[in-house]
């Protein structure tokens, strides 16, 4: 039996290529069109058949039954070759052990100290901006989040030159994985230059991170950071720790989640605010009242209701991980359809977040969907920027904390304005990043500038 042979097929498949061109040309439009054809829809990528799951109820079944719907198949093969076998990419058989060993690094008690690092890096990066300067927004946000990731993971043990190399390598890998997934063998061998650049980036990234881990293990010093936590962690079941290779995989995974995905959301947030001046005005009023011209700190988070709503709505509209895959480990059923073992399934946070039956006017930026006193928010299974179930992102609270602190602190001093004639679109890549987002930074007021500097962070 073919994969999901009783599931309706999406229209528009081409001979040999299937729906590959649609996924390369305009993947978001293609994905959001699929729910009109059923709860499950069959697509074809070259010779590979897959099923796209289009309803939150069925996606939730996949997320909760992670032993049956495991992280496997060609998508995860490509992810593992780039990122290793870390917490986000490992199969079910090793996930529970990895989760136990890495969970202490993300205990809620650590968040206040992490937040201090976040605030420090946010103020240092934004202090380097000049009034009227045109910013390449995503790299600026990447600098901010990468420095935070480095200091929380390594206590700033990664030199700036090495950090720059790591960021370059991540950008190369992320820009390449999506194409490598969609172009099947042997056609992928034709991407000679791309493949060579990808292989170099992957090797150098692991070499740099591996060197840091080797030096730290040799020093025997516990610096109280995430890396020290990983080095000293022991599984209660067998008292065994993580090998150096396993720690490299975890560090690469956490760096990706703690820098690339967080920066992507922050970049989209400032873009959306600039296009919605009334929401921006209300946000400025909130941060002025709560922060009084100072930087945002961990204790301020409960009072930043609209800021939090802006972050949540940004994650709804532009979830960084916009499409994810699972594969069945045994014969099973989903939505009344039989699925043989080895069936490949995709689910898309972007698709769910843009369904008009779940979110009225889904293309409208509306942070009040999430604020108290307004309409009831959608059911939790309809909002999955961090996935769900046992495989839910371990750093979700870390990420939301950083984005909220960054957005609030930035808004106390700066307005980022869109440049005339610029049209920003999501990049066709493994992360839903804004392509070509440049904005002009404008000081809000000199009095606020002095107040922030007097706070002791600058």
Which labels suit this protein?
single chain; about 450 residues; alpha+beta; Cytochrome p450; 2 domains; 5-stranded mixed beta sheet; 3-stranded antiparallel beta sheet; 12 strands; disordered C terminus
What summary fits the major beta sheet?
Answer: 5 strands, mixed
Beta-strand percent range: 5-15%
CATH homologous superfamily descriptor of the largest domain: Cytochrome P450
Could you give the order of the helices and strands? HHEEHEHHHEHHHHHHHEEEEHHEEEEH
Q: Strand pairing plus helix content: what structural class?
A: alpha+beta
Estimated radius of gyration = 22 Å
CATH topology of the largest domain: Cytochrome p450
How would you characterize this protein structure?
By secondary structure, the protein is an alpha+beta fold. Helix content is 50%, strand content 10%. The chain contains 16 helices and 12 strands. The protein has helices spanning 20-25, 27-34, 56-64, 74-83, 92-102, 111-127, 137-154, 160-182, 192-219, 226-232, 244-274, 277-291, 305-317, 349-353, 396-413, 446-453; strands at 40-45, 48-53, 69-70, 134-136, 324-328, 332-334, 337-339, 344-347, 414-418, 425-426, 434-435, 438-443. The protein has a 5-stranded mixed β-sheet. It starts with 19 loop residues before the first helix and ends in a 5-residue tail after the last helix.
